[in-house]
């Protein structure tokens, strides 16, 4: 029996051909393919501007910078998230303040944000955790009268919807990931989206050392103009090689989402018949892409979360522990990160696991996973 992984990106000959074409062009760094990918991504996400970056973490970094967040500011973030969500505020000299999440969605709510805000709060980073769309409108309704900017961490969100539109479409700033663990991959890579032209223009400069003229624009001219460095910038660029892959992947997105939701529906029907397992579901305000299909192991299930992971491993199935609690990690456990209760975060971190789900997963492979879940549900003692 072959090992069954949690995730496998869907890559094929179209991506190979796209990368080969870029190599033959002689321009492989950030250039025309990146610009084309940005335009296509912005159109798909129904947003005015998209700025490609080296990864989602650098996109979050730029989002905070263009929003004016800096030393002395607090940024409310969920502890229930990958560590990058908390790291990004520290890069600009701000303090990440941890907030709890809703148990059903794994996301921030206005109440959990309210419990964490301080007089110094300048921004909130709201995550679409595991692809479950955050209720962005209600969080913005709470934050904006207080002068707090809301940044959407849509690292896992491509293809999810909120109130009938793509997630991120209603955000002042949203950051995206194209890591291989995500539904749309460029190997590594990220994107910053915004409806604000001036923020997009500044982000484009900052990602390229804050040069007044981009490298691509200089290359297009025989006598390139002298560039200026308008502020301290960064090297956060995406390459045309990666963008070429991204364009192919973007064209496949709808097909990928359809299959993932089919698999998630099958998982949901099967796990609902097993006492003690609670599967992730769509919230009332939108649809998830099921980038991570997670279940919570409740007390009535005969074995623990870690026991179930061990049972899956015995069947050569690779599950994963649920999302981390960043406040428990050594990088933050000794820092001043606020005083909000994080009970739901710890419950989910300790009792959830992620099951395999990927585009090319077969019905028989899904049945293998469900069979183990049923076996665990029949254990005694």
From TrEMBL:
Cofactor: pyridoxal 5'-phosphate
Leader sequence segment: none
GO biological process, one term: polysaccharide biosynthetic process
Tree of life domain: Bacteria
Catalytic residues as annotated in Swiss-Prot or TrEMBL: 182 (proton acceptor)
Pfam families recorded: DegT_DnrJ_EryC1 (PF01041)
Residues found modified as N6-(pyridoxal phosphate)lysine: 182
Keyword Signal included in the entry's annotation: no
Key words, A-Z: Pyridoxal phosphate
GO molecular function: pyridoxal phosphate binding; transaminase activity
Family: Belongs to the DegT/DnrJ/EryC1 family.
Protein name: dTDP-4-amino-4,6-dideoxygalactose transaminase
Organism: Ornithinicoccus hortensis
